[in-house]
Amino acid sequence: MSAAVQTNLSQTAQNKQLVQQIFAGLAEGNSKLFVESMADDFDWTVTGTTPWSKTYQGKQAVLADLFGALRTRVVPPLKTIAQRIIAEDDIVVVEARGSNTTTAGKPYNNRYCFVFRLAEGKLKEVTEYLDTELVTSALGGIQG
Questions:
Q1: 38-46 and 55-57: which strand pairing?
Q2: Domain that holds residue 30
Q3: Taking the model in full, what pTM does it have?
Q4: From CA 31, how far away is CA 80, in angstroms rounded?
Q5: For the chain, what is the domain count?
């Protein structure tokens, strides 16, 4: 095996391990490592056509606009449990489910597929695939 292939395999394993550690925390409602692992230019894309669906550009926008809005609608702590993690090169894919309740008392247990791209040990971007109908019915619009 060439040195380049070994380095690539090693980086893939490191990326997967970091995401596994992040989701171990998220399963317990602890997002500290997740937030610390976001690059400053981290982008989060929520797919679909809901009021939540767009790309949140930059770590501060993700924390303020996306996470801030979630905090007003979901009873803390927000929990997301990984069920499968697959890694290849700089991409780590996580199949997960939520275990949450809205502030209105409704269950919010969405199912997700997160596709992360990492670089230099940091999360650079994620695309989130989810049940958009559940987002709208459980959480409503992002602004109101």
A1: antiparallel
A2: 3-139
A3: 0.92
A4: 10
A5: 1
